[in-house]
Amino acid sequence: MRCLPSLLLATLLLSGCASQTQDPSGIWINQAAIDAAAAGGELREALLAYGPNLEWQVDSQRQQASFSNGFERGEGRLSHEPDGGFRVHFHGDHQEWLSLDRSELVQAASDTWPQQRFVRANPADSGYAAPGSRFEQALYQAYLGGTWVIKQGLGEGGLVLFAADGKLEGLPGADRYALCLAGDCAAMSGEADSIWLQLGEQGQSWLFEREGDQLRIFPALNRAAIDEMPDYHKGPLHWRLQRR
Q1: Which domains, and CATH codes, for the chain?
Q2: Where are the beta strands (DSSP E) in 127-222?
Q3: Using an 8 Å Cβ cutoff, are 30 and 118 in contact?
Q4: Is residue 78 within 8 Å of 61, Cβ to Cβ?
Q5: Which of 64, 201, 228, 230 gives the lowest tally of CB atoms within 10 Å of its CB?
Q6: Of 197, 196, 192, 202, which Cα lies nearest the Cα of 223?
Q7: pTM recorded for the entire structure
Q8: Phi-psi category of 210—alpha, beta or left, where left has phi over 0 and alpha has psi -120 to 50?
Q9: Is residue 240 scored above 60 in pLDDT?
Q10: What is the mean pLDDT of the chain?
Q11: Tens-digit pLDDT profile for residues 86-110
Q12: Is the pLDDT of residue 228 over 50?
């Protein structure tokens, strides 16, 4: 009988721990999409297969949650549900349901898209981050990180470095780049992947193919009329890069 008080105390403590709600606050990225892209195929195909949302930013203290899909951002009000999950209310009647499954943030399936899973961004990158930027940095590092050698084209034999923050070294005529993830740039390039190359204040779209450790970059030739949305198609091969 002496064990009863201790048993009751232990039960209450365990019950209290079990009823505590986990905090989803933080930045969460779609690692599955990054892994699929890094495997060495078409970028947008991988993003579509595991997207469309690429990043969530959650602040439970302020009851705020926002997502980025590479083109637009949705901001909503976060509320805790009785089942331990979370509901995000957006403008109008749109809602999304989030939950925590061990180390992952789960966005429930809906009529619009399937279930998606997200992992926390690098905790070392704490503090404010522009919407979608943590996903982009992780993608850039996985997809284009490392040292590339120009095997064909201007600057042949030179080394090229694509930095995670969008800086570019070694590719003649460019010092910054951005991968097209969604939106107008995707619509203009059809089924092809596109990359923006910029030098100073001037830049333009290019089309590319990545196959394993080989990257081929082509001029984006516009077949649309001057008063129509650009319709880009591949021109002659301009660069062929090989990752060391």
Answers
A1: 22-129 (2.40.128), 145-243 (no CATH)
A2: 147-152, 159-162, 168-169, 176-179, 193-199, 202-211, 214-222
A3: yes
A4: no
A5: 201
A6: 192
A7: 0.88
A8: beta
A9: yes
A10: 90
A11: 999 998 888 999 999 999 999 999 8
A12: yes
For the chain, how long is the longest CA-to-CA vector? 89
Backbone angles phi, psi at 45, to 5 degrees: -65, -40
Q: What's the one-letter identity of residue 12?
A: L
CA atoms of 61 and 49, how far apart (whole Å): 33
pLDDT digits (tens, 9 = 90+) for 129-168: 899 999 999 999 999 999 999 999 999 999 999 999 999 9
CA dihedral 67, 69, 70, 72 (to 10 degrees): -70
**Dihedral class, residue 220 (left if φ above 0, else alpha if ψ from -120 to 50, else beta):** beta
Torsion of CA 59, 88, 71, 117, to 10 degrees: 80
Instruction: Take residue 135 and report the two structure tokens written for it.
Output: 């996903």
Residue 211 burial by CB count (10 A; 0-12/13-18/19+): exposed, middle or buried?
A: exposed
% of the chain surpassing 90 pLDDT: 80
C-alpha separations of 148 from 145, 167, 180, 213, 236 in Å = 9, 14, 20, 9, 20
Closest CA to 173 of 213, 204, 137: 204
CA distances (Å), origin 67, targets 44, 64, 198, 226: 18, 11, 27, 35
